[in-house]
Amino acid sequence: LGVFALMVVVGDSAADRLWSAFRFSPLAKGAEARLDAWITPPSYTGKPPIMLADGGITGPRAQDNRPVGVMEVPDKSVLIVRAGGAGIRGLTIQVPGEDGTQQRIEAPAPVNRGDVLELKFDVRRTGTITVHSSDTQVASWTFTVIPDHLPKISMTKEPERSPRGSLKLFYKAEDDYGIVSAEARIRRLTPKADTSSTAWAREQKKGARPPYERPPALTLRLPRAYAKTAEGHSLHEVGDHPWAGMRVELTLIAKDLAGQTGRSETTEITLPERRFTKPLARAVIEQRRKLVEDPRDRPMIAKAIDALTLEPEDFIEDLQVFLGLRSVYWRLQREDTRAMRNSVVAQLWNVALRIEDGNLTDAERALRAAQDRLQQALRDGASDEEIQRLMQELRQALAQFMEQLQRQAEGQPPTQGNNPNQQMLSQQDLEQMLRNLENMARSGNREMAEQMLSQLRDLLDRLQSGRMADQGQNQRLGKMMD
């Protein structure tokens, strides 16, 4: 009678309430059903994973075990949801879609009873994610996605060029989590067509022009690895590149830890080229440039090289120079391949350097090689013994270079307006600079050592160019020796 009376009072919902006592949700069996969920930010962010559910707890927790509301997570964080136990009949998550609607993602049906179901999802949009099992919602979390912005990079000063073909770039880069690499990309500007009144009288070239060679690769030196902000300068030797002296477009590009790239504004510059003073060296470089500009001029270039060697006893004192030019002539006559042209371009450059600098060319090449090896060792974290060995190589190469430079300067009049005593660094000054560099490297401050090595490159380049006497360079030299 009591049950009948209660059913009359409850009305139509009595049956549903009675049956609800015998319904069991997928997670109602306690230990037989378990839900685990966490979110893992990308490793490059340095942020720890966030636990969302660990069986009995279905919400994220702070360190003091208080529930956390809306969570901020980095872009591309991975949500992992696992469910298992006898009470699990399926696993589905609903996530924010592209058009603002909810997107449904369902785990594959279990093969065996009690199999663990797992879903992974890259969180890219702000919104609420819900977890369902057998059409019943068992968990819900709200995320705010922190976007990973593109890295930024820009030039802080106008590029500087040296008479020996060096390009100095000044830059600043920044990113949310860290800069991986930075580089300068160069694109050659297409020469304008000749529309002069005498263009019709010039020889018409046959066939299509061969493709241009690749632009020089300019990797910017980063002061610190994976720094969020990087500012500095980078020195590049581009005087020997076939594009030297040509108008190009320069764009700086930075890459962050996520693989995203940012670009600076594009600027037009003229790539620096080596200045040659001796007439024969200038003539050789002129033919080299013609070969780079249009390889279809190869027959005319071969004739010009032949003419330069008709009477070598009058103006070619170096036998290696004569043999090098004759070798170029015969190679241009007998072969017309891209590999041959590139080899001839490099050979003409070496011949011109031999004419201009004599034995100094070999000493300069050995010095640059020693500097490159030491710089790479500093970046790779080489041992103190390896640094000491490379420093000794640098000392020997620098001593030979300075000796050759001194011999070249003997008998030449000093540069007008400059003090000849300031044109050459003393051996004691250089040795003090090298000791400071080695001490920096061995004390663990290799970033400063690498920066000091870069300054040494710059100083030697300016010394060769006869520009060491200016006040700013003397101040920089004093700072390096302190």
Quick gist of this model?
This protein is α+β, with helices and mostly antiparallel strands.
Q: Could you walk me through the main structural features you see in this protein, from its secondary elements to its overall organization?
A:
By secondary structure, the chain is an alpha+beta fold. Helices cover 36% and strands 24% of the residues. The chain contains 12 helices and 18 strands. It is elongated, with a radius of gyration of 36 Å. It starts with a helix and ends with a helix.
Task: Based on the model shown, name its key terms.
24% strand; alpha+beta; 5-stranded antiparallel beta sheet; single chain; 5-stranded mixed beta sheet; 12 helices; elongated; 36% helix; disordered C terminus; 482 residues
Question: Roughly what percent helix?
Answer: 25-40%
The tally of helices reads: 12
The N- and C-terminal alpha carbons lie at a distance of 105 Å
Strand order of the largest sheet: 3-9-8-5-6
Order of helices and strands: HHEEEEEEEEEEEEEEEEEEHHHHHHHHHH
Shape: elongated
Give Rg in angstroms. Answer: 36 Å
Give the integer mean of the pLDDT values. Answer: 78
- Weakly predicted, low-confidence segments: 18-31, 61-67, 415-424, 467-482
The biggest beta sheet reads: 5 strands, mixed
